[in-house]
């Protein structure tokens, strides 16, 4: 597989799968991948790129006689303005057949009108605010939504001796969705939410809030922060300020125990219970095959997380659409294929709801444990057939 990277202004532009410059438009199916590849959320793009490489390593780079070409665009984000401009360029100049990627909600929301106007299928590989799929008829989501994974956490907590909770979420779409779904389900089950704290997306300071949580003396703190380093910072403060000793448990969505950063979180994260759609420890032949091809295609990639899986499944969707349309991609026909599409994902079977174009899947309850000396999210319970409940 050819793989080149070219620097252009603020955005890193790469092409892999096939050289964009040698290709004739009619010989290729072009996928514009928009995500952060630099800045605080650089791992999001890298995980997605890694998942795509894993898929293409396993399934080849040709469908219906055409090469699949991935054109990478770096938003440097969170940066909705750059994401929108990149999407416009991909549509107008590069003439892509699909828009894909989108780690961060504000970037997905900014691109939705471009997809709608250009009638380009837009495959959401992570961004998880419920409302995103309502912003264009050309959007399909293969990742998750925060209401979908947060409701089960509240239900599980209520049934397992947790009665009083403080919530702490990042103050933007997915965090507010997580807070709302958690509260609705937890209070509905007879629980009490003592306080709801929101922290900024950029450079949050956890220390003062962690003290407030300690003072409130809840049974547990429910937390959503976007995957990556913020989870590490929160857990460090939680341990340092002695919340564990005070008997305050941590529960949350699996963004907190992101598989990619979990190995460096150390013992601080052991015992944390989360609900989520993917764990690298998921026991299935599909996940074993995914982990193997991810490692083969990304020798220094570390452990893949849910964004790599979202991208891998997004490619499965793109390949299936391309196959069914015999390589001639039309926006409306592509959406007709995507509606109701079923994929045997590394996380288990998933389906794209034909009405909402949102993902339907099993949500697992997991506990962070050591398995053979390494730290994993070990699944021990599940909520089958979960739809998004945020719309
Ligand atoms: C989002 O911006 O939608 C988002 C980002 C990171 C996550 C989940 C959701 O872990």
Describe this structure in a few short sentences:
The chain is of the alpha/beta class and 391 residues long. The chain has 2 domains: 2-144 and 283-357, Response regulator (Rossmann fold); 146-276 and 363-386, Response regulator (Rossmann fold), CATH 3.40.50.2300. It has helices at 42-59, 80-92, 105-118, 146-159, 173-188, 207-216, 229-240, 262-265, 285-297, 306-324, 331-338, and strands at 3-8, 11-16, 28-35, 62-63, 66-74, 98-101, 122-124, 139-141, 164-170, 192-199, 220-224, 249-253, 273-276, 342-345, 348-352, 359-371, 374-386.
Name the beta content range.
Answer: 25-35%
Could you say which structural class the secondary elements and strand pairing correspond to? Answer: alpha/beta
Shape: globular
Could you name the CATH homologous superfamily of the largest domain?
Response regulator
**The CATH class of the largest domain:** Alpha Beta
Instruction: Tell me the number of strands.
Output: 17
Count of helix runs: 11
Mean pLDDT rating: 94
Largest sheet, strands/sense/barrel: 9 strands, mixed
Helix content: 25-40%
Task: Return the string of H and E elements.
Answer: EEEHEEHEHEEHEHEHEHEHEHHHEEEE
- Unreliable parts: 1-13, 17-25
Ligands present: P-hydroxybenzoic acid
Gyration radius, rounded: 20 Å
CATH architecture of the largest domain: 3-Layer(aba) Sandwich
Question: What count of domains describes the coordinates?
Answer: 2
CATH topology of the largest domain: Rossmann fold
What is the rounded distance between the termini?
41 Å
